[in-house]
Design goal:
By secondary structure, this protein is mainly alpha-helical. The chain is built from five helices and two strands. The protein has two domains: 67 residues, no CATH class; 64 residues, no CATH class. The N and C termini lie far apart (103 Å).
Amino acid sequence: MMIEPTLLSNFFLIGAAFAGAFIVALWISLIIWCHRDIRRRSKDPLMHVLAVLVVAILFLPGILIYLILRPPHTVEEEYQLALEEEALLQTVEENTTCPGCGRRINEQWQVCPSCHTRLKKTCQHCKKLMDLSWDICPYCATPVPGARIISNDTLQEDAAEDL
C-alpha cells in the first residue's frame, strides 16, 4: 500500500498548523496569566507593563525570567502578614487582664472593677503598688507585715544545705 506524496504533505501541513495554533494559544495564555499574576503581586503599573512585555517578547525564556523576578507574595498575602504581625504586637502589649474575669485592666488598679478581684496591694511605708506575691516592697525595702523575710544569709545557708 503506497501513500501518495500529496496526502503526506497535506498531513504534515495540517499537523504544522495545529502545532502553530497550539504555540500561539500557549503564548497568548502565558501573557494573560502573567498579566493576572503581576496584578495580584504589585500595584505598580510600570511593573505590570514590564512583566507582560518580557513574557510577550521572550515567550518561554521570558516566563522563566518573570518567575524568577516576580514578588514572592501577593498584595493580599502581604496585607494578611501585616495584620498577623499587628495582632501579635497587640496581644503582647495588652497582656494585662484580670485573673478572675479575664477583662482588660489597668496596671495601676488595685481591684478589678468588674469582679472585685484583688490585683495589687499597697506598701504600708511608701504607699506604692506591689504585686500580691511580693513579700517586700522593691521601692523602699519595707517588709510586708506577716510575711516571712528571707535574708541573704538564709539564702546562702539554704544553698549550702542543698549541696
